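cron nightly-structures :: item 1 of 1
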Amino acid sequence: EQGPTWLAADHQRARALAEGLSGCGWVAVDVAATETNIVMAHVSAERAAPALEHLQRCGVLAGMAGPARNR
């Protein structure tokens, strides 16, 4: 019953996260491509693990999606 309501809110939060991350120098995010509740963040291979740890410390559910990409 709450699913559609929560999903819409998740989409809005993902868009806000993508917009916020797009202003950081250590990550590349295609804000226009963020149409769902998933944000794909491209980072250097050296920054991928530290970036993931940072996102998780900030309460963002994130995981590796490749050697230089976080989801």
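cron nightly-structures :: done
The first strand starts at residue 28 and ends at 29.
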